[in-house]
Amino acid sequence: MKIFSGWRRFVFCLPLVFLLTHLLSVTELHKNPEMEETHKQLNKKFDHLVFGPAAGQGLSNRLQCEGTKALNRTHSSNSRSGVDGSITFVTVFTIYNSSLNNVDDKSSNTIVGNASYNKVGRSMAVLNVFINFIQVAMPQSKVIILTDPISDLSVHRNGVSVYPIQGEYSRDKLMLQRIRSYITFLETRLQMLSQKPRIITHYIFTDSDMAVVDDLGKIFHEQPDFHLALTFRNNKAQPLNSGFIAVRGTPDAILRAKLFLQEVLKIYTSKYMSASRMLGDQLALAWVVKSKPNFDTSRFAKALAFSEDIGGTSVLFLPCALYNWTPPEGAGQFHGMPLDVKVVHFKGSRKRLMLEAWNFYSSSPDIEDMLCLILGSGRTKYDF
Description:
38% helix, 11 helices, single chain
């Protein structure tokens, strides 16, 4: 009995011992300014790119870089090969009133290189860099920004226009609204073509945190039969990413794409409203595609393009590894970067890397390939 009694007293005193040790450590830290400064520096987040060895060296199916020069790409990301003016990029973007109210709040500012951004400034900087990349890779293409009519959005750029569409643009419903905006936009294109046939314009719907680094017009030239293109990855629950959707500009293709997205919207609102803030659209996309009888989902495991008829719509499936590649969050990008990436998707906090990469790329004549710059990023964690 005495042994158990002593053990209980020991366990009871443990929290007190840890508390006293912590208090002594904090007291010592405040007594020593140099130690406190060192502690702050260790916890300070980087505000600039940190370069490390590029992953994938020696692997034949991965990008090989010598500094910022690509050794085995078939097309350089700064080749400015895009001379086809038949491509229009479409993105949904809005500014929230709550962000405007905090426009002078310095406490939420983020430093990227030599620039300091508040919440609105960060969003606008990402949008402008999105446009910059398109205008470098495909200088003849245009950009249309679908937005909330009450959003005070003004973008004065050549080849860029703002198209207001009524809807619900709250954060919780933005992914849902994005599909609705795409459908409305396609309906307007159909009306225009019915009233006055014109030169065919193909549309690529993308998130605004993407960097186009190669000419995407080849999709429509080399794959002449599809109506709509989606990007896929080897992910059982979410094999399709909605950040990139290409639509051929013929009346039939626009109609089929609109009907396909209407079916996605129907499934979204009936099955996945609990995921309306995020992922609901991707889950709905996967449901519509997988609902086709005998659809072979094993093809998502290989990064090879393929086509399939889904409810009367000819869908081209493009691998995310090339058309929607996301740098893993951290240095080295694991096993490297796939060859000939055409679109880089800077999801979430990676938007900082998007801004930093553009700043380096546009200001230094020594950087020959944007992808080598991104591949060599040694940032261990983004903080945007």
